[in-house]
Amino acid sequence: MFKTLAETRAFFDALIPGIQGVDHCEIVVAPPFTALSAAAEEADGTRVSISAQDVFWEAQGAFTGEIAVRMLVDAGCTYTIIGHSERRQFFGETDETVEKKTRAAINGGLHAIVCVGEMLSERDAGQAAAVVRRQVQGGLGKFSEKELSNITIAYEPVWAIGTGRTATPEIAEEMHLEIRKTILEIHGAAAAGAVRILYGGSVKPDNIASLMKCEDIDGALVGGASLDPASFTSIIKYL
Hints:
The protein is an alpha/beta fold. 46% of the residues lie in helices and 13% in strands. The chain is built from 12 helices and 7 strands. Strands 1-2-3-4-5-6-7 form a 7-stranded parallel β-sheet. Strand 2, helix 3 (69-75) and strand 3 (79-82) form a beta-alpha-beta unit. Helix 1 runs parallel beside helix 12, helix 5 (95-107) packs across helix 7 and helix 7 runs parallel beside helix 9 (169-187). The protein is globular.
């Protein structure tokens, strides 16, 4: 929940020159709903794609405060984040609603970035792998291999979101491998090898290099460090 329209335009004015010549990765920016159209205008003709931070599963109706897929597409989005840990933690997101939102998103032409991750209490209880497996199976288990090509998974341990704490590369790699193994069990080796899994959770310029050395980490879902264009640019160059 950052950035007004003016701040969004200023962000892109600073970001775009900094990523000229960057062609080794996809770059997606996810501003709040109110700034989506402005962000899409600023990103037009660049390598930057625009994502929403959430979406609702119905096409229209009496769902005050919610945003439909077609509205996001109309605003210039090609991606949406679904099941972010803060949505799960504070707003009642469940594996069932994640599945419904993901289905609506990909049916409506959006690429879904689906988040999974455990609470600190669950990690301390030795349940981290079981929790993430349940979230992957519950949120993505009913999708076909073809549909999975329109889904990116982001592992973001809740205890590392906005806390300044980051999973060690070893923890991150272990959990990414667990996610990939779960996809392997559901969809087979080809899907498990093709699915992109991002790490999210206090990603910063000073830890991105070590994270990206891990074999099963394909990119980053950047939070607070993406608010500053210079910080975000430096992370992008390591991806």
